[in-house]
């Protein structure tokens, strides 16, 4: 019969990481990865600049709203679906992204973000507004409140986004 020390030594060896001693590629957690919010050469509409100056999304960590301005040449068909949106923001796994589409009224049930929603509507000249909830892993998610601006070549997807910590 083995002693307690021998048994613990056996367990320690059995539970040892088999790749110990080898260099590991550095992984970035999904919570720390950043999505693309602007494309080069795409201007942020003034109503969004104004609306995001002192606006915060209230959650377990109050985070500022950031303006969004992305090229969206397919604006003739409306707002993007979940996979198209994931590709626009450079999600690392667009077809596997956890994205939920919400109506702004359902997202802001108390009217707390009415000024932000109004700014997005103004930037899109009254076009349809949609909220995309993008899971970032764990208790983190981002809310993207967007609309379209313009049509055809040179059209944009504009709006705001904010990080939410939901525990």
Question: Which helices and strands, and how do they pair?
Answer:
Blueprint: H1 4-14, H2 46-51, E1 56-57, E2 63-64, E3 66-71, H3 82-88, E4 99-102, H4 104-107, H5 114-123, E5 130-137, E6 140-149, E7 156-165
Region (Disordered): 1-44
InterPro entries: NuiA-like
Would you summarize the structure shown here?
The chain is of the alpha+beta class and 167 residues long. The chain contains five helices and seven strands, in the order ααβββαβααβββ.
How would you sum up this structure, described in words?
It holds the Pfam family NuiA_2. Residues 1-44 are annotated as: Disordered. By secondary structure, the protein is an alpha+beta fold. It has one domain: Nuia (3-Layer(aba) Sandwich). The protein has five helices and seven strands. The strands form two sheets. The protein has a five-stranded antiparallel sheet with strand order 3-7-6-5-4, sandwiched between helices. A two-stranded antiparallel ribbon has the order 1-2. The longest helix has 11 residues, at 4-14. The chain is elongated, with a radius of gyration of 22 Å.
